[in-house]
Amino acid sequence: MTLELFGRLNKELSITGSAFHEIVLAISERVNRKVQIIRLHWQASSLLQRIDQLTVDVGRQMVTHVSRRFLIQGQSSTDLADLDTTLSHAAIRIHEVKRALLHIDSQIRELKLEAVHEDLLRFHHDLKLRSSRIDRLTVTRTAGAVGQSIGAMPQSSSVHVAAILRGPFVLAPSNDLIFRPDDIVILIGLESDLDRIGLWFTSQRSLQAPSAKSA
Description:
The chain is an alpha+beta fold. It is 62% helix and 11% strand.
């Protein structure tokens, strides 16, 4: 009996230790990702300051050339060539800095997408543990949902419309909102109910809410 008890304790401690290790790793990854994003934002800020400084320098040199033109009756071709060279070099340097900014922006986007992907995986895992999921369905042109409102959707105690994506817009669900072809509907609920109600958005099959039995 004692050996069995020690075995169970050892197993539980092992599971707890593994879970704690995973939590520590997850927190470390999040902190590291945030540190990288902050560092990239700092680099982007430095590059923007460099562009501002280049613009100021070019403006100062142009003012100097214009001032010479008013102070001196004639302006030599050498001065004009120098001004053209200065502008060309400044344009090249600003173009290089902008390319560096675009690269940093892409890195920041990738890090943020990683964070979003991680949150979505955790969200799906939480739903899976409860026999639920989130579905993304596109309303077909021959579906029973076309021309119908959310209030006409087959009834279910677990399925809820989270959002409707229509073109560039995100529409909040309301009972009088009418579904159109190509609408993207985000549903959340129990897996069994989603499998049934999903047909209302994707096939010609007409699903009716169960009628109440008369007393």
